[in-house]
Design a protein that fits this description.
Elements: H1 3-28, H2 34-64, H3 67-93, H4 102-123
């Protein structure tokens, strides 16, 4: 994946995250419980943060050209899908067994940021 493709992926994730936030604030408020709305909002928060993280990773990849940065970006995207995606589905359906997927997404976030640190260390 190129740095340009990462930027496109980041932008698409920002669109999705902002849309999910707006949907939660305006559409879901009357449809789900306060507890499930809080779950949705957590998904949106991590989605937004890591979509911005994808932009950072893309810029670092463009600057340093290290393939570890692009690997970090892909793992970060997997984290968004698993972490935020599982929380979105949980909030919409109440399906609790998806709770097992959420921590896997969290670990993907941790791994992606560790790879960013490692790639920066190696690029020096």
């Amino acid at each position: 994946m190129t740095d340009r493709q990462l930027i496109i992926l980041a932008a698409l994730n920002m669109i999705a995250a902002v849309g999910a936030g707006a949907f939660g604030a305006h559409g879901l408020k009357q449809m789900i419980s306060a507890d499930l709305l809080a779950v949705w909002q957590t998904g949106v928060l991590y989605h937004l943060i890591h979509a911005l993280g994808l932009f950072i990773v893309a810029l670092l990849a463009a600057r340093y050209g290290a393939s570890l940065f692009t690997t970090a970006g892909l793992i970060m995207f997997v984290g968004i899908v698993l972490f935020s995606g599982s929380l979105y589905i949980l909030a919409l359906t109440g399906t609790r067994w998806l709770g097992i997927v959420t921590p896997i997404g969290g670990v993907a976030f941790l791994v992606s940021w560790a790879l960013v640190a490692w790639a920066a260390w190696r690029a020096a």
